[in-house]
Design brief:
Nucleotidyltransferase, domain 5; 8 helices; globular; 6-stranded mixed beta sheet; 24% strand; ATPase_NBD; alpha/beta; 5-stranded mixed beta sheet; 13 strands; 250 residues
């Protein structure tokens, strides 16, 4: 059963067809830039471009980069404020004519790792952190998702949220070395360890491919491992979170 999964990021929107039984991509990844406006109209147009590229006509799973409540965007995050109050699935359905299952992007990536990757068969509290423009977080208790666990939104010092200080974008924006940046990221993990006491932390997102460069700088007692699905977890998880009743028959 192949489902189109789409992962919306701060700089790019990526899609691929996924076999939701095996968790494997069955197509190449197709990427378009996230529109500079980051508003509903512009992003819906980019979503349609991805759908049209695959000539796809079934349900779509989509990871969205802010918190959602019953499908409605309740925080703008790094997007245009006009998203607040919008039902994201309805916006994308109107642009494509296809049914959408829209979930928080970090929840989608974490779901993929729990079902197919580093969190498979791990009991207890598992936290996945996705490093990118922000710091996304997905949390599972004995394999069950706890949605919208936005740990990157914690305030820190003079910053309105800690992800502005410790995300991959902060490293690029401030020209930090890996050594200096990992000290910040490790501080973020220390807060997670203190607040929620997880049994396992999985690190994913774009920076996960550079795991060897910063692994030694992570000093918390809780086990921390790289995501097995690397930067494709968001696409895979979004596809896998489509309700079974909406899978296409072919």
């Amino acid at each position: 059963m192949n489902i189109l999964g789409i992962d919306i990021g701060g700089s790019g929107m990526k899609g691929a067809l996924v076999d939701i039984i095996t968790g494997e991509r069955v197509s190449d990844r197709f990427r378009v830039p996230t529109p500079e406006t980051r508003n509903p109209e512009g992003m819906a147009g980019a979503i349609k471009e991805i759908v049209d590229h695959f000539d796809y006509h079934g349900p779509v799973g989509c990871g969205f980069p802010t918190s959602l409540k019953k499908g409605v965007c309740n925080s703008a995050g790094n997007l245009d404020p006009s998203w607040v109050g919008q039902n994201v699935a309805e916006v994308f359905n109107a642009a494509t004519g296809l049914p959408f299952t829209v979930v928080n992007d970090a929840d989608a990536a974490a779901f993929a790792e729990i079902r197919y990757g580093a969190g498979l068969d791990v009991d207890g509290l598992v936290v996945m952190i996705t490093i990118g423009t922000g710091l996304g977080s997905g949390v599972f208790w004995n394999g069950e998702l706890i949605p919208n666990f936005e740990l990157g939104q914690l305030p820190y010092k003079e910053y309105s949220k800690i992800e502005l200080w410790a995300a991959g974008s902060a490293k690029d924006r401030e020209g930090l070395s890996y050594k200096k940046w990992v000290k910040r990221f490790n501080k973020f993990l220390q807060y997670i360890d203190l607040i929620v006491s997880p049994d396992l932390i999985i690190v994913g997102g774009g920076a996960s491919k550079d795991w060897a460069k910063f692994e030694a700088g992570i000093t918390i007692p809780t086990p921390v491992v790289p995501a097995q699905l690397k930067n494709h977890a968001g696409i895979i998880g979004a596809a896998a979170m489509c309700p079974p009743g909406e899978w296409p028959v072919k």
